[in-house]
Design a protein that fits this description.
Elements lengths: L2 H32 L6 H17 L5 H22 L9 H23 L14 E4 L2 E4 H23 L1 H11 L1 H6 L4 H23 L10 H15 L4 H21 L5 H15 L12
Antiparallel strand pairs: 1-2
């Protein structure tokens, strides 16, 4: 295998790995703060891609305004989901949370199919046919932008969690709910913010990949299962673990597809999950929302 081919596979893996990381970080954030497994997360990813499609094709927006608009709408949608649905769940309502989010996911998926059809659609932007070349390596500009947006989003989340009052409140609430209550932290505000941010990250992932892949109502299902596996590999609620596991899975998938068979790409993440669960049931980094 040539060095150039190796580097190309690595770059391709980082693109999809960053997407996995964004989705898995959103799942980890929501679980870490609220202890809710969001089974609608894949459909939120699809909603972000659909919003990107509508912004570009219907509203005629450019790439960056469309990305920003799709992300902001999904953030607001996340806040609405918490206010209308998730805030009514009590601590320990794990099964109800699963059923509720699964139902929400089905509504989003089938509602999108009803409103916009089930056929795959392509998002054409000003950057769709632009390629970057560096040291013999080629990469579509859209893929490079997808990586850059992921890095900026994760760095922004780090700043929020580490240096803002609401971020510190989320971390405190995730580590010890009773103590957070005693010092006056408002659970509704913390949980609502965590849900909005987590769902916004999934929307950003969908919007950034919409111009690269086709957009259709069931595009979130395989991504959802992989994101769950990545969260388990990194450790439930562990945000750095979700980032590293997402990047790792993306790179492994790229090398498996490039050097072996594309039919094995979807299997490798679950094989890794099974192996890690056998060796370390709590995941590589264990449980806990820590940055």
């Amino acid at each position: 295998m040539s060095t150039m081919f190796f580097a190309q596979l690595l770059l391709n893996g980082l693109v999809i790995g960053m997407t996995y990381a964004l989705i898995a970080v959103g799942l980890s954030l929501i679980f870490g703060v609220m202890e809710i497994v969001n089974f609608a997360h894949g459909q939120i990813y699809m909603v972000g891609a659909t919003l990107m499609l509508l912004a570009v094709t219907t509203l005629g927006m450019g790439y960056f305004p469309a990305i920003l608009g799709a992300t902001l709408v999904t953030v607001l949608f996340g806040a609405a989901i918490h206010f209308l649905l998730l805030r009514h769940l009590k601590q320990g309502d794990f099964q109800r949370g699963i059923i509720l989010t699964m139902g929400l996911g089905m509504v989003l998926q089938n509602g999108t199919a009803y409103l916009f059809g089930s056929l795959p659609r392509v998002v054409d932007t000003d950057f769709s046919f632009v390629q970057l070349t560096f040291a013999g390596l080629r990469m579509d500009l859209l893929r490079a932008l997808s990586i850059a947006l992921g890095v900026v989003a994760i760095a922004g989340l780090y700043v929020v969690l580490q240096y803002t009052s609401i971020g510190k409140a989320m971390r405190a609430f995730a580590q010890n709910r009773e103590a957070a209550h005693m010092v006056g932290i408002k659970p509704a505000v913390v949980a609502g913010t965590a849900t909005a941010l987590g769902i916004g990250l999934a929307g950003l992932a969908g919007a950034s990949l919409a111009p690269i892949y086709t957009v259709h109502p069931v595009m979130g299902i395989p991504v959802l299962f992989k994101a769950f596996a990545i969260v388990i590999i990194g450790g439930l609620g562990h945000i750095p673990g979700a980032i590293l596991a997402g990047l790792m899975v993306g790179v492994i998938e790229s090398f498996v597809g490039g050097l072996g068979s594309s039919a094995l790409q979807d299997s490798v993440v679950f094989l890794a999950m099974i192996a890690i669960l056998m060796a370390r049931p709590e995941g590589i980094f264990g449980k806990g929302a820590r940055v």
